[in-house]
Amino acid sequence: MDGEPERDFEGSAELLRALAHAVRLQILCAIKDTERAVGEIEEITGIAQPGLSQQLGVLRKAELVTTRRDGKQIFYRVDRQRMLAASDLLDALAGTAPDRRPDARSASIRSGGGAAVFARVER
């Protein structure tokens, strides 16, 4: 496949698996606009602490969230660059032009986190 970027299928699948879970999507929706402490996320979502911690761990491992510690509290926020990369992956699979976000394609996934940008759609 001349001229096409190399694809990280395993990393891309890992990213999509992290997103493809109802509880994790609920958590991401709770923190999409602002950072929140674990207690706030628990209150908003109704997810009990043990399950919440487990799902936040999956989101951290997939680098879909960033964290900030303040004393004993940990605050979570959606990692927007990672979400843009996930969106670019879906755009590539759908064959839609991601031209609406010119800076998103150039933002690569941090190493060690798994997925790389899946493909750049050229027209």
Strand order, main sheet: write it out.
1-3-2
In CATH, the homologous superfamily of the domain at 10-78 goes by the name: Winged helix-like DNA-binding domain superfamily/Winged helix DNA-binding domain
Radius of gyration: 16 Å
Return the structural class: mainly alpha
Level of helix content? Answer: 40-55%
The best one-word shape is elongated
Oligomer: single chain
Could you tell me how far the N terminus lies from the C terminus, measured between alpha carbons in angstroms?
16 Å
Q: What's the CATH first level of the domain at 10-78?
A: Mainly Alpha
What is the CATH topology classification name of the domain at 10-78?
A: Arc Repressor Mutant, subunit A
Strand content: 5-15%
Spans of at least 5 consecutive residues with low confidence: 104-123
Write the layout of secondary structure elements.
Blueprint lengths: L8 H11 L2 H9 L5 E2 H8 L3 H13 L3 E6 L2 E6 L1 H15 L7 H5 L17
Antiparallel strand pairs: 1-3, 2-3
